[in-house]
Amino acid sequence: MTLAKALDADQRADALEHLAAGELDVLVVGGGIVGVGAALDAVTRGLKVGLVEQRDLASGTSSRSSKLVHGGLRYLEMFDFALVKEALEERGLLLTRLAPHLVRPVPFLYPLEHAWERPYVGAGVALYDGMAMTGKYDMGVPKHKHVFRKQLARMAPDIRTDDLHGAIRYYDCQVDDARLVMMIARTAANNGAHVATRTKVTGFLREGDRVVGVQARDLEGQRDLEIRAKVVINAAGVWTDEVQELIGGKAQLDVDASKGIHLVVPKDRIRSECGFITKTEKSVLFVIPWDDFWIIGTTDTAWDFDLAHPAASKTDIDYLLGHVNRLLKDPLDHRDVIGVWAGLRPLLKPMRKEGEMGETTKLSREHTVTSPVPGLVLVAGGKLTTYRVMARDAVDHALKHSSTDSGGSAPTSASITDRVPLMGAWGFEARTNQRVALSRASGLEIGVIDHLLGRYGGLVDEVLALIHERPELGEPLPGAEHYLRAEVLYAATHEGARHLDDVLARRTRVSIETFDRGIHAARPAAELMAEALGWDAAQVDDEVDHYLRRVEAERQSQLMPTDQEADEARVKAPEIV
């Protein structure tokens, strides 16, 4: 059985004690994909590392993406070959080495509306595959294939083929983004990083011009603490501007929030063996297979309202339905939509001139690392697929400037995260081969074992141990029968879930995979969490009430025609902490 350090209440309390005592080498602010990646990168170099996040892991952009691990096919049209090659290498690395239990290949069809598109798009996809095959790591997915009209009709019976000239099938990958973040955080913690969620940075500690740490507030314990560190890495995404305001002076990075929304519809509403992708006038339209569902996205519009709770408006939903219906024989409508989510992309505006404030390093078209004042590093931009590169660049920058500022020589330790599999990767292939034996031993159907393997990998042993001790945990969660009761309890005892939202929206996807958005599952899930977190009946009621208010606020926002009205409806249900 795999033994691993849990992200639980004791771990959080221990992390807070360590953060308040002594000095860290690196403190990371932000528990999204880049923040946890930076914490893992730094701690595996042998550094003393802490991470604080004001809400839950992946509670912002990193749980609201398109859930794709991809090279970015559209960037080839922009001639950004270096970026595509970098992302394809990271795709192969995640799929074959770092997170094979979480990342899986997905076939896509690129419909061809004009005959001239076949050589044009075909050449682009061939280049895409060629870059993947010649990268540092295994490609991990099949090569592309040309599909003609009759083949397309068989592969995707519900797509309108009369006006199409066939399609090109190619592969990318997908991942449950929130689970990826959580697994990286657990891996960092298992290597010695001190991870504390619900801990908000309220200011910076300064000695002269140098940042030497942060002032923070434990939002659950209602206490203030000072965390000292040689270098602070800010990976706050769309909150970067707010963090820069705490520094004072002129901001060096200008980050805009761009909203992208996604819809979830039942799998049986679109008959197709593959997902598909096409361009719209404003963005890219993805239709992505997701277990028993399809994910439809995305939009790309400016967002100037509440950063913590971006809201999808009726206009956004109509836009996606309108575009996907151009491809479908049987159009979708609002009644088909099970779930909706909105996320914010942190988009960088053009760089300020070098020397205007500190030193800036433009590392790629997609992300930037800068040090506005000694002791503080900002990293912003980028995308989910290249999180490891962003994290590596941020830690490299931090170590370089830490050494330079202190008058020493640059550290020699280099990033090793390309050789550090995430928790759950070890044992995944063996347990997959043993799936029949696991089914017999646990009494669970093979389909359930496959579901668990795809979420926990080799850590499935820990979930099955809970079920062995308490067989009732092997029963489906009422109101969300595609998850087990054990998964809710395990989220609270091992995966850092502190509140009901954390479980229903991020450790599982109940909030977007059930027609009622998780309303009927809320109380059974809260009662399971209460066992692990010591909640009394009143707190269970508070957690359920908050969740129901959240669902209602989201539903109301999705009836509003404008972003402002959608925002006003959504913020009526604030965070529980």
Shape estimate? globular
What share of the residues lie within helices?
25-40%
Individual helix count = 19
**Average pLDDT:** 93
* Spatial separation of the terminal alpha carbons: 35 Å
Which stretches are poorly predicted, pLDDT < 50 over at least 5 residues?
352-365
Tell me the total number of β-strands.
21
Using the CA coordinates, give the radius of gyration: 23 Å
The quaternary state of the protein chains shown equals single chain
Main sheet summary: 10 strands, mixed
Query: What class, by secondary structure content?
Result: alpha+beta
Taken as a percent bin, the fraction of beta residues is: 15-25%
Question: Main attributes?
Answer:
577 residues; alpha+beta; nine-stranded mixed sheet; globular; 21 strands
Topology:
Blueprint: H1 9-20, E1 23-29, H2 33-43, E2 49-52, E3 68-69, H3 81-98, E4 104-111, H4 117-133, E5 145-147, H5 149-155, E6 167-174, H6 177-190, E7 194-196, E8 199-207, E9 210-218, E10 223-234, H7 240-247, E11 255-266, E12 275-279, E13 284-290, E14 293-297, E15 301-302, H8 314-325, E16 339-348, E17 359-362, E18 367-373, E19 376-381, H9 387-406, H10 428-433, H11 435-442, H12 446-456, H13 460-469, E20 476-477, E21 480-484, H14 485-494, H15 500-507, H16 510-513, H17 519-533, H18 537-557, H19 563-570
Parallel strand pairs: 1-2, 1-10, 2-7, 4-12, 10-19
Antiparallel strand pairs: 3-6, 4-6, 5-6, 8-9, 9-10, 11-14, 11-15, 11-16, 12-13, 13-14, 17-18, 18-19, 20-21
Helix pairs in contact: 2-6, 2-9, 11-12, 14-17, 17-18, 18-19
